[in-house]
Structures are given as structure tokens and as C-alpha cells.
């Protein structure tokens, strides 16, 4: 009888246990499918991290913009791109960790019964941004055949042709952000779910690309839309005070325990000559003085000005499109006689003011600075484009990729060559990854031939001045 009762109880347990919650069988730490939101967040975060890290294994833009000099190991400021495989590391991050994640997010959303078109537009914008950066860094790159797992040897597309297609896609993305939907505050690490801000960022990117290729009609079209014109609109990822969500610059300057960088004399001396109050924010003093290290040489970290303490904050916003930059783009557009509204002087002064406010200085300080003969629009040396270039370069201290690009486009900055070199040795692009020559030889060889050789000093198609 006892055995029978046990059997009945067991059978009863089995019967009542058939309705099992399958969620208990899912390994949440190893999901079979990553949500689109997670892929979008990760791809976006990886792109911002790449543009802001100070690791010379990946990002040497602060050196190429001559904002910083190095201490113990000056190879990167002497333009050695090979030893650390800098171009290859950057290439891998953009294709594998940014574009692949964004592609996955787009595929998941597109397969849904009612795809969120605003989310797709936001993804499209980030894809356009990432591809435009690849073109701006390397020139011709895989595009049409890129990210195809069945094609290990993608062909390289012409850089100018890629740009044309990106601008078409960007227009569609801007229009696609007019509806309802979009990534919420949890998935959106930039604007916390505010799609109207994303649209401003996309339109501002359109203005930047239009000015890259000197297209007045495109610039006019962008200027007619909503742009980033106030620092509250800056396209800046929100970092936090604790790992692993800190600004990667904090990892380089603080967590590493190293002092690999000091201000470059190129930049520090220029700020000093202009009595620029941003000098005290951008750098730390040495016995009450601001002293730049010799650009392209090894420098003692105790003898020269280290990067400013604001750059050591783990939660410093990582901005890649700012109000200051957009105002300078508009100033350049007017100087080139494009119909974007306003005067070059007004946009120039607005760009300087926005930069001061971005770094915690005041409008009164900006006005006093703008009144100086070497800064004032009417009396600053050089033609209109040279005036714009210098102040844009100074303002882009936290977005060194655009600082380097400002030199490539406008060519009038007070750059200096490392010892034993000339200005003609300063890189205007990155070498293709060495792996491309071995894993994709046909694509690599065709691309290298099309741009006149895989060298650091061949120019991107828009670098025509």
C-alpha cells in the first residue's frame, strides 16, 4: 500500500509538472539571439569608444592633430603605423564590432511583423557615419561586398562613389526619423530616447560630409534642416563614473597608471600666443607654466604639461559632433559662397563661443577673447578659411579625428614636422591592414593601385586644396 501511494504521488507530480515554464531552461547569459537593442547599443558604443580612446594601438588622432606629444615611446608621433598594426586594429573594430552589430540589429528589426522604421533610420545613420569614417581614414574600402560572410575577399569600392551613396542613405535616414518609435532611453546611450536629437545629429553629419566634398547645394540642404547649434544637442555618448562604462580616455590617462602623453608644443604654444583661456582647461601647468613637449620626440612627463584634469574624469562625455564644429562648418560654407544663411563672421564667433561654453568657460570670456586682434574676425591674420581653420582646430581638442581632418582639408594650421621630417611626411591617410594583402590580395592590390599606392601620404579624394 505504501509503495502504491508513492507511485500515485509520483505520477501526480509528473502530470502536474508538465506545464513547465520554458524560460527556466534558457541560459540568459548565453542567449541564442541577441536583441536588436543590445546590438545597436553595443555597435554605437564601440564606435564612440574607438573615436575617443587614447590607446596608440588603435587611435593616434590626438598625435596626428598635434594636440599631444609622447613621452617614452614617440613612434606613433613619428608616423609609424606598422609596429602596432594601428590601421588593422581600427579596421577590425569598425567592420567587426560596429558595422556587424548594426547590421545584425537592422536584420532583426526588419524581420519583425511591424518593423520600427525610426529604429531602422537610427541604425542607418550610424552605419553611414561608420562607413564615412572608414573612407576618411583609408580612402577606397570594401562597401558593396562588405559584411558578407560568404565572401571572404570583398572588392573595394571607389571612395567618392561610396560618399555619394552614403549621402543618399543619410537623406533617407533623416526623413525616417520623423515618425514615432525609435530606441528608448535604455538602448540609446547618446540621447536617452530623444529621436529629434538623433535627427539633428544626422543632419549635422550631412553638413560635414557636404563640406568635405565642397558641395554647396548639399550644404544648403543641410542648413535648411535642424542642426546641432547648442551644446545641449551635442552628439556625445554618456559615460559613467565606474568601470566598464567609463570614457576610454580615463582608462588611458588614469587607470593605466601611465603618463604617456603631454601637450604638444605645436598646440600649447599656439594657445599661449593667443592668450587662450582654454589652455588652463586643456592642460595642467608645470610650476605655474604651460609647457608643450617637443612634437615627434620623447619628452619627460614631469617637465611638460600633462592633459587637463577634465580629461581624467571617467564620466566625461565623448562627443563626436558638437555645436562648435557645426558653427565652423557653416562659417566655412559662407566663406565658400554657399547659401546657408548668416555671415561667416557670425558663425565663426558662435563657434568660438560654443567651444568656451562646452569647456565650462563663460560667454564673457569668449567675447573678450574674440576682441583680441589675433582672434577678431576683422584683424586675425590669414584669409577667411585660415581664420576658421585655426579656431576650429582649437575647438576640436576632444574630437581629434576632426582636428586632424581640419588640417587635411584646410591646410593652414601651424603644424610642424618631427625632427628629420618635412610637412610632406605628415600622414593624410592610414595604411591598409597588412592582413588585407595576404587574405584579400586581389581587393587590396586593386585598391592600392586605384589610389596611387598604399602610402601614408596619398590623399583622400576630397583632399584637393
TrEMBL record:
Check the record and name the InterPro entries matching this protein.
SusD-like_2 (IPR041662), TPR-like_helical_dom_sf (IPR011990)
Coiled-coil ranges per UniProt: none
Q: Which UniProt keywords apply?
A: Lipoprotein
Q: Report what the protein is called.
A: SusD/RagB family nutrient-binding outer membrane lipoprotein
Which organism does this sequence originate in?
Salinimicrobium gaetbulicola
Amino acid at each position: 500500500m505504501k509503495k502504491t501511494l508513492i507511485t500515485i504521488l509520483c505520477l501526480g507530480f509528473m502530470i502536474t509538472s508538465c506545464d513547465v515554464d520554458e524560460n527556466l531552461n534558457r541560459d540568459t547569459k548565453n542567449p541564442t539571439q541577441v536583441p536588436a537593442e543590445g546590438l545597436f547599443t553595443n555597435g554605437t558604443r564601440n564606435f564612440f569608444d574607438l573615436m575617443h580612446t587614447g590607446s596608440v594601438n588603435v587611435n593616434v588622432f590626438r598625435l596626428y592633430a598635434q594636440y599631444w606629444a609622447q613621452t617614452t615611446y614617440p613612434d606613433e608621433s613619428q608616423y609609424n603605423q606598422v609596429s602596432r598594426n594601428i590601421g588593422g586594429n581600427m579596421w577590425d573594430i569598425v567592420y567587426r564590432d560596429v558595422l556587424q552589430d548594426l547590421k545584425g540589429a537592422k536584420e532583426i528589426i526588419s524581420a519583425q511583423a511591424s518593423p520600427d522604421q525610426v529604429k531602422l533610420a537610427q541604425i542607418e545613420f550610424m552605419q553611414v557615419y561608420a562607413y564615412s569614417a572608414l573612407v576618411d581614414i583609408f580612402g577606397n574600402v570594401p562597401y558593396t561586398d562588405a559584411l558578407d560572410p560568404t565572401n571572404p575577399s570583398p572588392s573595394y569600392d571607389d571612395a567618392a562613389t561610396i560618399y555619394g551613396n552614403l549621402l543618399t542613405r543619410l537623406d533617407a535616414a533623416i526623413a525616417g526619423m520623423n515618425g514615432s518609435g525609435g530606441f528608448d532611453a535604455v538602448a540609446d546611450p547618446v540621447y536617452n530616447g530623444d529621436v529629434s536629437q538623433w535627427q539633428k545629429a544626422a543632419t549635422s553629419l550631412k553638413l560635414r560630409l557636404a563640406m568635405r566634398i565642397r558641395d554647396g547645394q548639399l550644404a544648403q540642404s543641410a542648413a535648411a534642416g535642424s542642426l546641432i547649434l547648442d551644446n545641449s544637442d551635442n552628439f556625445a555618448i554618456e559615460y559613467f563614473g565606474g568601470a566598464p562604462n567609463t570614457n576610454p580616455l580615463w582608462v588611458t590617462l588614469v587607470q593605466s597608471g601611465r603618463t604617456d602623453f603631454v601637450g604638444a608644443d605645436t598646440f600649447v604654444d599656439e594657445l599661449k600666443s593667443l592668450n587662450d583661456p582654454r589652455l588652463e582647461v586643456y592642460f595642467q601647468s608645470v610650476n605655474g607654466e604651460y609647457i608643450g613637449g617637443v612634437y615627434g620626440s620623447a619628452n619627460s612627463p614631469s617637465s611638460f604639461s600633462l592633459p587637463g584634469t577634465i580629461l581624467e574624469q571617467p564620466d566625461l562625455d565623448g562627443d563626436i559632433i558638437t555645436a562648435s564644429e557645426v558653427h565652423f562648418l557653416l562659417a566655412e560654407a559662407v566663406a565658400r559662397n554657399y547659401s546657408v544663411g548668416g555671415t561667416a563672421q557670425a558663425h565663426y564667433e558662435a563657434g568660438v563661443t560654443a567651444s568656451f561654453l562646452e569647456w565650462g568657460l563663460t560667454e564673457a570670456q569668449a567675447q573678450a577673447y574674440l576682441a583680441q586682434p589675433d582672434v577678431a574676425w576683422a584683424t586675425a591674420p590669414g584669409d577667411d578659411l585660415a581664420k576658421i581653420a585655426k579656431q576650429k582646430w582649437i575647438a576640436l581638442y576632444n574630437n581629434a579625428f576632426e582636428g586632424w581632418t581640419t588640417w587635411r582639408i584646410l591646410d593652414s594650421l601651424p603644424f610642424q614636422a618631427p625632427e628629420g621630417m618635412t610637412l610632406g611626411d605628415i600622414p593624410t591617410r592610414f595604411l591598409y591592414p597588412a592582413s588585407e594583402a595576404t587574405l584579400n590580395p586581389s581587393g587590396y592590390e586593386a585598391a592600392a593601385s586605384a589610389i596611387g599606392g598604399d602610402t601614408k601620404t596619398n590623399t583622400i579624394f576630397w583632399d584637393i586644396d
